[in-house]
Specification:
Low-confidence stretches of chain A: none
Order of helices and strands of chain B: EEEHEHEHEEEHEHEHEHEHH
Number of strands of chain B: 12
Strand order of the largest sheet of chain A: 2-1-5-3-4
Radius of gyration of chain B: 20 Å
Helix content of chain B: 40-55%
Structural class of chain A: mainly beta
Largest interface: A-B, 26 and 40 residues
Oligomer: heterodimer
Number of helices of chain A: 1
Distance between the termini of chain B: 61 Å
Helix content of chain A: 10-25%
Structural class of chain B: alpha/beta
Shape of chain B: globular
Radius of gyration of chain A: 11 Å
Largest sheet of chain B: 5 strands, parallel
Strand content of chain B: 15-25%
Chain lengths: 65, 257
């Protein structure tokens, strides 16, 4: 299934957002997520199912002014 | 000074971007005696995990975090970014930026008011990055903002206070709202000038981070902010067009022939 992760198209064999994070080595990392432009809380990642063509954004703290 | 019910002693808020190294950033925050730093959210790679070390550094500073929505050009982007920030940083504070123009990074004040209303209704404490427009200020307060952050000049320009009249008018119209000059400050004298106008605090980043010695510049800004605040409380004299001799004229000996 093709998923766009942070702007890059990936072929992932996962069903949920939590599984996608696990597969992409984010385990234990402090990140926040959005699916197709909508915020997905950490507690909802396991029940958030992914579909072909979904766009995921995964962000972390960074320098800012 | 209170921001949303939280007592804050330091009137210098510092950004965390563009420093030569993480160690210099940490030293600059300490030299500035800042209690609040701004941070952002950016894409994280599961392989590189660049954000994780930065987050450790900031957490170890043990100070309050003000996440921003920098770079957002729409209400939707800003709201989603704020929601992500609230979860990651465990704070309902958000420095709300909705950028409307790319050359000046001027806020889109229409989108700003809309986003401020959505976020305030959702329980956020919104710190809006705005122009010094009085009507926009009124609308932001109606939307739920209890702090206002007008720009001094375009972000990163270092031009100082481009519209002292507008900033003075804003201070006069909203005497009870904490006002922070955010953006455009290049020199400690600019920060002092903002404080002398009666502003409650200043927020700056580039002027410290891009200085030859950021830690020394942070110290200079801390001194300037304190001096400006003290001067404001001391009641500055009125400016006038004509000279007025400070040395008494009475008693001057007559020496001319």
């Amino acid at each position: 299934m093709k998923i766009i992760v942070n702007g890059s198209e990936l072929d992932l064999g996962v069903a949920t957002l939590a599984e996608a994070l696990e597969a992409l080595n984010y385990a234990g990392a402090v990140v926040a997520t959005a699916l197709n432009g909508h915020f997905v809380a950490a507690r909802a990642r396991e029940t958030t199912r992914l579909a072909h063509g979904d766009k995921i954004e995964i962000v972390a703290p960074r320098q800012g002014g | 000074m209170e921001f949303y019910g939280v007592e804050i002693a330091s009137r210098l808020l510092l950004g965390t971007a563009q420093y030569p190294s993480p160690a210099i950033l940490a030293d600059a925050v300490r030299a500035a005696r800042a209690e609040i730093v701004t941070v952002s959210l950016r894409r994280e790679s599961g392989r590189l995990r660049e954000g994780q070390d930065f987050w450790s550094l900031i957490r170890n500073l043990g100070i309050r975090i003000l996440p921003n929505t920098a770079g957002c050009h729409s209400v939707k982007e800003a709201v989603t970014t704020a929601q992500m920030a609230r979860e990651i940083f465990a704070t309902h504070w958000i420095k709300l930026e909705v950028i409307g123009e790319v050359d000046t990074l001027q806020p889109d004040v229409f989108g700003l008011v809309e986003a401020a209303r959505i976020l305030s209704d959702d329980g956020f404490a919104v710190f809006p990055y705005m122009t010094e427009d009085l009507v926009v200020a009124e609308r932001l307060i109606e939307a739920g903002c209890k702090v206002l952050m007008p720009w001094g000049a375009p972000i990163g320009s270092g031009q100082g206070l481009n519209n002292p009249f507008g900033l003075r008018a804003l201070r006069a119209h909203f005497p009870d709202i904490p006002l922070v000059v955010d953006a455009g400050i290049g020199l400690p004298s600019h920060a002092a000038a903002a404080m002398e106008l009666g502003y409650d605090a200043v927020l700056l980043n580039t002027s410290v981070a891009k200085a030859g010695d950021p830690v020394a510049m942070a110290r200079a800004f801390a001194g300037a902010v304190e001096a400006g605040r003290t001067a404001y409380l001391a009641g500055p004299m009125e400016a006038r067009d004509m000279a007025a001799p400070s040395t008494p004229v009475f008693g001057k000996p007559v020496l001319a022939r």
